[in-house]
Protein: Tat pathway signal sequence domain protein
Organism: Massilia cellulosiltytica
Amino acid sequence: MDRRDFFRATARVTSVAAALPLGGTARAAATPAQPPDGAALGWLEGAPAFSAGTTFGVPWPRGAVRKDQPFVVDGASGDVPAQSWPLAYWPDGSLKWTAHALGASVRPGAALRVRPGAPRARAQQAVTVRRAAGGFVAGTGVVECSVPSRGPVLVTAIRRAGRDIARDVRLVALRDDQPEGSAHRSEFVSEVEQVTLEQEGPVRSVIRLEGRHRDKTRAWLPFTVRLYLYAGAESIRIMHTFVFDGDERQDFIRGIGLTFDVPLRDALHDRHVRFAGEDGGLWAEGVRNLTGLRRDPGADVRRAQLAGERCPPVADKVAPLLHLVPAWGDVSLAQLSADSFRIRKRTKAGCGWVDSAWGRRAPGTGYVGGVSGGMAFGLRDFWQRHPTQLDIRDAHTDAARATVWMWSPDAPAMDLRFYHDGMGMDTHAEELQGLEITYEDYEKGFGTPVGVARSSEITLWAFEATPPRARLVEIAQAVQTPPQLVPAPAHILATQVFGTLWSLPDRSTPARAAIEDQLDARFDFYRKEVEQRRWYGFWDYGDIRHTYDADRHDWRYDVGGFAWDNSELSPDLWLWYSFLRTGRADIFRMGEAMVRHTSEVDTYHLGRFAGLGSRHNVQHWGCSAKQVRISTAVYRRFYYYLTGDERTGDIMREVLDADRRLDDVDPVRKLANQPPKGPYPARISFGTDWASLVANWLTEWERTGSARYRDKIVTGMRDIAAMPHGFFNGDRMGYEPDTGRLHNMIGNDVKALHLNAVFGAVEIFDELIRLTGDTAFERAWLDYCELFNAPVDEQRRRLGAPHGATHALYVGHSRLTAYAAWKRKDPRLAQRAWQEFAGEGRQRPFRTVRVAGPDVLNPVDEVPWVSTNETAQWGLAAIQNLALIGAALPRT
């Protein structure tokens, strides 16, 4: 069964749908029932050539699976070795999400299913971890590594069959004090301060290392490294994270990488260097090449060397002269842009480099070793996160040194300084003028990178001999696109783990088909824009731009707050709900890259703004609006639950108490006509602030059962519902971080803001209503949903006055009207919601226009009026309206 058949076949789960007066497939999830045979799984990109081990998440309906339930993963001929653990719980204590790990021995082509049951299968090559003097010794059954508890080395040795294949795995960071380079370059190495066995099991174990980079005088750049070991794997997966904590005016990172030594025992002509290229290509040479010589060493010798096999005896006339054939000890592949890499080599340090090959996009995998063993190494998103580099040094000696550079030392230094000097914005009034003209929310000292982070995935493979060329190509593919199992969309929908606001694609009428087609077209446009506009680079990859400049035929990359998007108006949610309903691999991968970017680069992990994120700006950290609406877990939890990714789990936990920053960093300090803070520690809005905090707390509540964060949620729900006009009093509220109490600050006045519902509030409130059953909160929210887009006369009649919000996001807010229509079973509201979605007949067609010639640098396909705000909100409205009130949509 191929991937498309898998997703079509599992769509039968939605047959539990019950007709609503308004129709809509969201009703299908209203009475969830656990599929009796568990959850079918599919490989995201189809069955891979092989898997080195994988982890995935599976959701379960409320009340269906007890918290201590074991699980079985069934294959074609019975259960396969698997390891399972809980990720989240429903309020009744039943399992909501579970994570499952499979080792490297599972056949990728086999049909797989997770079901409750007692597992019987055991891994033949199980993961083992034992505590040794000063650390851990962990193995996959194939390779073994020794991890010390402290010191400069992450892993002292990686062994296979009792032989050291790599030694002294460590981190390295290079620093200059000037961006253009200087004579004061410093080299820092890792200093591990703490090691934790985070997970121990027969199929998967995880070891976490924490520390900082250090030289003789200073420690900085805190790091976290996780080592993942899967049963039967020849490899160790490494997740590396560092946080910038320097002074961006004098700390310029010249390189940051992971380095290790590879012992070499073979003759120079039996040592091999490999770099993967594009489209399955491979650059493969010997350290001492025996091809192309004036005297032929023998055809069998040449063939063996090219294949990476042990060479037979060299011809008698050549053997005495081998020492005169150069040995190329140093080889380097540098990817300094998204469109070009260079391979060059030299015989040794102090000698000149020789260019060997050029290409466009390297997948970031290399190898050094010989017929007696060697190491392959790969960096995920290698060309996408340029400038990157793979280095091999001293391969002509007894030990080569390989370095995986996450920032290439051949590139310009990492320059994190703010992009302008204030431009005369010396007073608060001048800062507001800057906001008025360029949308630039500037405030001196706020555009700091101190506290931003980046995570990278590296995989190390230990081999007993140089692997065949085809095998290295397979490894390169697996490094770039790790095989990922996912449950079918229909199964996820039936469990209601992400609420009731989405449905499976349905093209049964012309109108439905037209909306589905435009949903596809909008995603496809942004996917192609990433490539067309080269939205790549170490700090940039994963983000998209905010607003287009039709005059320049480019995005407003250099205009204040119009440049990088930084999750503004929830493109993250648009992508994840799009994936949930379609199961499309390309949507998942774009959402994955966005999670990695926005949770790391757009969020502060230490310092003054820890737990907060930065609003959209020319630089990801440039805006002075440091807000919880960017750092919120509402954008990360999809990826976390689908993959069980520990780093994402860390980040969601980091933001739990971000509400304590809202006193020092008042989110409305620059807005006019705000009520005074009064006796409360902070003032916040229900949408851009409280709903984002609630997403953090809800995620922790379901992950751990925390009563503390549950109570903060329930307290706030109660306080909003008790206000005279509910959410229409919630645009600015007094807030107490200790208790979670919210206070009405505007009395009987009525006020709303067009931004309050567009940062995850709609989606999180739907989940809260279902989880808590709080009818007063539900009633207040439904009133808000019904009245936000309502005619002014109706607002005046129901509220006593218009709420005053603009219609800037009128189409996006149609989903609020749809939600009220669905909940209140009101056909009139459903009809109004579709009229709002149509934009009162003024929507422009989403079609690209080709622009070429001297008007542009390169030919482009553009949508002249496009903005990510509009795209994300239109996409969410389309998805939710179809789910909630699809039956009320006219056929054409």
